């Protein structure tokens, strides 16, 4: 079910010859690029396929790592286990989003690597999201330590830190219930541009929603989406926002 409100104005936000010599090498390079970074995210990348744990579009998965240590994986998430000889459990979030938990009775601490940073959790819970190297860490309970770019910060429940190769943000106060709405089968947006809403929906969509109407993308909406009925997003954008819809094979939807 889709429920929400819309605000009209937004803040701007010879084939054989071709396949020989240098041409063949170029073709191989392009092909390799398509495997490593699939166009529109329509299939898993090579690193994703090599992960120890992986979820596809719209899938969730819970993994018990050790006594008292667990991870809950959101859609399109890839995680590998890393060796450790210092009595801790170590994972790397290659892509996607996961909630990590180290219970009071955990047999060891948990370290999560994401892009250029590390998150240390002992008797704590945190939500990590890695979007192509842009990482958000949210402390859900207890406290976690984040190391990135030579900086160390301690987050307590309800605090979030974002980092990328270029910068580390100040600690911000957030609503953990909104951050982890995906665990309850929901996406919740409050006064967000439609383009940003659809970017998030695409993480769960089996295919791709492509928005070609820039003005429509600036429209701000407050909306609550049930992931089990996510296909209703297209009907919502068509009936409430007046978008024209074209459906293509492979789950590709064009909005104009």
Principal-axes shape call = globular
Class per helix and strand makeup: alpha+beta
| Mean pLDDT rating | 86
Oligomer: single chain
Number of domains: 2
Task: Explain how this protein is built.
Strands 2, 3, 4, 5, 6, 7, 8, 9, 10, 11, 12, 13 and 14 form a 13-stranded mixed beta sheet that branches. The protein contains 7 helices and 19 strands. The radius of gyration is 20 Å and the shape is globular. Helices cover 19% and strands 44% of the residues. It is α+β, with helices and mostly antiparallel strands. The chain has 2 domains: 2-10 and 185-255, Phage tail protein beta-alpha-beta fold; 56-179, Sandwich (Jelly Rolls), CATH 2.60.120. The two termini are 23 Å apart.
List the helices and strands and how they pair.
Layout: E1 2-7, H1 15-18, H2 21-36, H3 46-49, E2 53-54, E3 61-66, E4 69-73, E5 78-82, E6 88-102, E7 109-114, E8 117-121, E9 124-131, E10 134-141, E11 143-148, E12 151-156, E13 159-163, E14 172-173, H4 176-179, E15 186-193, H5 194-201, E16 208-211, H6 214-218, E17 220-226, H7 232-239, E18 245-248, E19 252-255
Parallel strand pairs: 6-7, 16-19
Antiparallel strand pairs: 1-17, 2-5, 3-4, 4-6, 5-6, 6-9, 7-8, 8-11, 9-10, 10-13, 11-12, 13-14, 15-17, 18-19
């Amino acid at each position: 079910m889709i429920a929400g409100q819309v605000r009209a104005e937004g803040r701007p936000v010879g084939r054989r010859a071709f396949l020989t010599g240098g041409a063949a090498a170029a073709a191989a390079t392009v092909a390799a690029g398509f495997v490593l970074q699939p166009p529109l995210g329509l299939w898993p990348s090579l690193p994703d396929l090599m992960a120890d744990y992986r979820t596809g579009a719209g899938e969730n998965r819970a993994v018990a790592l050790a006594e008292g240590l667990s991870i809950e994986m959101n859609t399109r998430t890839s995680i590998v286990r890393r060796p450790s000889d210092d009595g801790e459990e170590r994972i790397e979030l290659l892509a996607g989003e996961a909630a990590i938990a180290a219970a009071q009775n955990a047999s060891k601490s948990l370290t999560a690597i994401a892009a250029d940073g590390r998150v240390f959790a002992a008797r704590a819970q945190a939500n990590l999201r890695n979007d192509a190297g842009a990482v958000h860490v949210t402390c859900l309970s207890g406290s976690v330590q984040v190391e990135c770019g030579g900086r160390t910060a301690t987050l307590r429940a309800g605090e979030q830190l974002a980092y990328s190769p270029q910068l580390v943000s100040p600690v911000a106060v957030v609503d953990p219930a909104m951050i982890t709405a995906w665990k309850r089968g929901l996406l919740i947006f409050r006064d967000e541009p439609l383009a940003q809403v659809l970017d998030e929906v695409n993480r769960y969509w089996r295919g791709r929603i492509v928005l070609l109407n820039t003005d429509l993308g600036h429209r701000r909406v407050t909306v609550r989406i049930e992931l089990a009925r996510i296909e209703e997003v297209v009907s919502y954008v068509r009936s409430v926002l007046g978008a024209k819809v074209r459906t293509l094979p492979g789950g590709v939807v064009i909005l104009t």
